[in-house]
């Protein structure tokens, strides 16, 4: 390589170097690079080359790909995969003229890519080739490329021809792989090419192998399910005819592979159904042709319901259901000629033998001189055929298909009545009863109630009630079907059809009662009659041509039900009135009958209101109303009030209210009856309108009810309704009302009183457009704000939620009047409260207002701008007041949490200048001051961490450390380290978007870029929102809080590169990631720009070394790309000694480093990677190794397990053991000492000595009791008894390995003593017996150690 290119880091230079390495075979023999890594680098560099360079160097690139990467001698799947990727980039550079011309180079490259579809090296190469070819086909411009399409077609022909010519019809693996690819490719290829290929695929279904046929059918199914033809009707018909003529059946020979045989049949069914649906949606197809093929599909698929598995039966059902849904239309049956023989054929189908049925159904022309069935008739007969006795095992499937057919076209099929009778005559089993009822209900939905009961009338009065088959014969089961499936009911039909049946049942009941007949029979008749009456509200939901007259007929039967509760039908009669009233009010089609019915209901409304009022408030044994009836009475009374004449209703309300107040003052009414009267008045308030002269009377009466504890709840409700309905002319009237009612608003807040406040706010909202009313509105709100603040601390969630809603309404009202600063000032009155709950509620209310203001700051110009200096000063003063609450550590958890939440939010809104200095120091003093109470501090641990992270992001790390006490510096460092990890993760997600990030991940990144706004809940905060930036705090003065998004946009704009070269055929539609989306390549591209800035040579060399170091030491995720697997990662995992020298060999610990050890972060200002200093971890490793070496010397073994037990003993205990070992050696005799020392020294230097020492230690453990592998001393409490939980460790445990020698009774004492440090043997020891008196092992004696 020339000297001038040594420091050239451009893509062209990299390409030249890699090409030279491939051609000279250096890349394979070098120690630091494997062939996989070289192939990866080559394909990555090609992705960043200009198109003009790719075109110019085509021969060089193609030679490397064909001879070095995709040659038959190359066994590595990774090399071949990257070769396919490189070939894709090469073909991308070709122009339209090169594709369609006589360019041999382009043709060779494309054929090489096609051959990779069936590459022998395996699925990895094949999948990459499929992706690359699909990218070419997906481009719309590919339709203009004739030669590539011809080449692909020839390739498919050659593969399939090899299959056809194979000896013994052996299945070729290439054919299966190609079919899998075609399942995807046919969805995006030009339609003409698809039509030619699917013919060849269909030929494969004529072969004998089940697996091959299954794949061929599935490929066709995917193709026809994903594509819809606007033309080519003849082609689809040809495919469908071939499929229908070659029906697949289960093998009759010995079933060697039953599952594969079933799969073949299922794939055939699915394929045929999709082709049928495709034909029915093709333009220009005649309805008769569609019906012809639908009946042909039925004739074939119905055979799969007999003597087949459940899988095949379900597949056939799904196929027919799709065909019925997608292929049948009502207009196909409207013009169907009438056939008198069709009804007879439907009814007598089961009377024929099975063979005759099939033959008759398949006849296509005439029989015995009569006109033959049309194709529409055949479809109907086939649907009926599925309900014959032949398909008894598949009755559930047949009923579901009948339901689908009726819902689709039943309303226009004249034979629906005959089909309904056939279904009704079936006696379903338990497993198909639900489908049977649903099928009958579908007829009711399709044809309507009148036609339905004309075809299938009820026979309740004709059939003997004592008959065992009464339900089936009388068809009483239809009563339960009507409510679920009734559509377009007609009240006149109910009166005409059901009312006579009801009256007939009533006559039978009265006759039996007069004759003292059977009580059981009477009860049965009553149940039937009540069930028929219960259908009445369902028929009142629809318009009718005789609605008014039908309802007039029913009133004479409904009134006795309400007054006398006949047959306990009072709730039903009331529900009928309510249903009809709501229908007349809500109907969109207002006919003359609707108008007449409305007027009639309005005329009787006052009479019914009066009657229902008396009924609800009546007393006496004969007038007792159950609670369920009371609820319906109030609901109906309210409905009648909504349509009553307003003036008369208001007079009735005032008269009733005055009488009630008078009786209450004179104590002439009991408490329970009084509450009933109040409930009635509330129900009447729907349409009542009050005038000024009535207001004073109402106010005096309401004071009486509110002062009474029993009636206070209803008094507040009624007062809220009165204020809501009161017609106020100006705000002064509302102010006078409030002054008069103010004494009533004392005490604890309740839900009813909040309703009253809400009514006030709604009235004030009417005057918000006049700024002259601001002063009086503000004075009114000052009187209500205290109670709203108190409601914030209410334990009742409904009260709390209601107060929040009122606060939102007040905020919108005041914001419209441009007076939000006054609202914030009003709220400060809560800080004057003496109760902790009031202070905490005030802080939470202030947070709510800040949240609302932030939400509207960009939507409404009247919202306060957070950068406003006056608002900043207000927030600073309020914050100083709130922080003072942190000094009182006895104030409780609720207040402290409110203060911390406020601090967490206000940090985002206060400017840096105001936040720095005294205010931030006060906050930190309060935050760390609660540490004296560890229990309190631990409760808010996570919240404090988030607050500190926000401070660091806002003010900078150095400033936060300067105001943090020394004992809490570790917490700051922990938060800073956690921030880097989150930030790295966010950066990686953006850099590695190339891998194929989901839409959910992309949206998460967008949300993370918004900033650190605290208007979300803690659980919704993303990593970016909880993180911070390491800066001096100057850039945080912006209040848009979108710095992250801006920086991201800038980085994207910097990395955009303009494409260069000639005709870029596929540049717009390319599914290949851009250069700046590939992490490794984008780094090179950015650094290329930096190099072009003419840096000094020394700085260039230094930058080069740093870049290489970062790439080698970076996390594996940093090198992920759209190539899915990276050879750099595999290089680390393998670390083969033959390719890497022993000096540079990376151990497994270095290769498989976890995320905690790979602490890499990015400096935002420079955009560079920085590797964290890991010296502390290295020092810990060295210390651990020294400790392990010391133990080995002491115990004489190198195989000591140090994984978990190292934490069980500290260094002091180890020194004591060593000292005890040396003392033992000194106590021996001189002769023995000399020999022992020599022996020990000789043993220590030999492997045999190690084994001997290990045996001695093992023998000592065996003789000393059970073996303690992990004593659990780490978890012992230093302050008392028991264990403690430790951060980063498992829950307390101990592991004692059982010693088989301790089974001997003589070793019982040693065995029990082994558990002395783990299990409590007892609290006391008997002085006489020296045994434990209680505990787990009580009664066990121990000898005192000497």
From TrEMBL:
Low complexity composition bias: residue spans: 1227-1239
Biased composition (Acidic residues): 1021-1034, 1045-1060
SUPFAM superfamilies, sorted: ARM repeat
Positions of the UniProt region annotated as Disordered: 1003-1074, 1184-1282, 1320-1346
UniProt biased composition (Basic and acidic residues): 1003-1019, 1061-1074
GO cellular component: nucleus
Residue ranges with Polar residues bias: 1240-1253, 1270-1279
Annotated protein name in UniProt: RRP12 HEAT domain-containing protein
